[in-house]
Structure formats: structure tokens, C-alpha cells
UniProtKB/TrEMBL annotation:
PANTHER family: NUCLEAR TRANSPORT FACTOR 2 (NTF2) FAMILY PROTEIN
Pfam families the record matches: SnoaL_3
Domain spans labelled SnoaL-like: 9-135
Protein name: Nuclear transport factor 2 family protein
Species, as recorded: Streptomyces koyangensis
InterPro entries attached to this UniProt entry: NTF2-like_dom_sf (IPR032710), SnoaL-like (IPR037401)
């Protein structure tokens, strides 16, 4: 396990998010493995299997997303032979269509945790699987018992 390999995987992971931000379907298709064993879970979606189904989902997302930005935090990479797993938190800012011409559309923030699995190929690291789940955090006292949500300290 050399830092160079880890850096290559993390570059491929960052490239994935950059491509989605730009909405470049051709580059996205090139980053995914060219085989049918692919899988993908977008937040709130069922499991998508196979290259056609996975890439079709991105075409739909890209066609219906006016603006999206990912700020990645908590990036951790594990490498075992020709397979790498990257986990991260996606801090997402996305926007819808403007209500009127010349105006900005509404922006929405979302926190998502993701696992991206890559495989080493002769063409570099390729995405094999993407699984993203929304982070559901309660505000302190929201449920009426004074307990905080995940990651929050409970009162002593």
C-alpha cells in the first residue's frame, strides 16, 4: 500500500464529484467500469444494478439538476490489491430552477454519507459501486426527551 496508490484513488474519487458537478455524462460513463456488475444507491433510491441502469440514473439526475456542488469531508481510503473503498461525507449544495428569468433558484443543503468502491484497471481507477445515504440528525430536544441526535453529546 503506497501513498501513490492512495493518492490515485482519492484523485479518481474527487474526479467523480467534479464530473457530476459539471454534468458531463460522457466523462461520467468513462469513469465507471465498463461491465455489468456495477451498483449504485442514490439517497432515497432503490439499488440500481448494471451499467445501463446506473448510467441512466445519472442522466436523469443531470437533466433535472440546475446546480450541484459537493464539499467532501471525512474522506477515508482503504486499499486491498486492485480494490479500493473510499468513504466520505458529501456536504451538498444544490439548486432548482429560478422562479423567473434572471433570478437565482432556491438553494438546498444536504448532508450525505457515501461509500465509493473503485477497481484498478489498465486505464486507472474506475468506479465499481456508489452508495449514498442521507444523514438524519435530530436537533437537540426535538423528540421531547432532551437527548441529542447522532454525533451530539447528551446532557450529563
Amino acid at each position: 500500500m503506497t501513498p501513490t496508490e492512495i493518492e490515485q484513488v482519492e484523485r479518481a474519487n474527487a474526479e467523480y464529484y467534479d464530473i457530476v458537478e459539471r454534468g458531463d455524462y460522457a466523462e461520467l460513463a468513462a469513469l465507471w467500469l465498463d461491465e455489468e456488475s456495477l451498483s449504485c444507491v442514490h439517497p432515497g433510491w432503490p439499488v440500481l444494478s448494471g451499467r445501463g441502469e446506473v448510467l441512466r440514473s445519472y442522466a436523469v439526475i443531470m437533466a433535472n439538476t440546475d446546480y450541484i456542488q459537493f464539499i467532501l469531508t471525512d474522506v477515508q481510503t482503504s486499499l486491498l490489491g486492485a480494490t479500493a473503498i473510499v468513504t466520505c461525507t458529501e456536504n451538498i449544495l444544490s439548486g432548482g430552477p429560478p422562479p423567473e428569468d434572471g433570478e437565482l433558484g432556491p438553494l438546498v443543503g444536504q448532508l450525505v454519507v457515501a461509500t465509493n468502491v473503485f477497481r484498478r484497471t489498465t486505464e486507472g481507477w474506475k468506479l465499481w459501486s456508489h452508495h449514498a445515504s442521507p444523514v438524519l440528525a435530530e436537533l437537540e430536544g426535538e423528540d421531547g426527551d432532551g437527548e441529542g441526535g447522532p454525533g451530539e453529546e447528551s446532557p450529563a
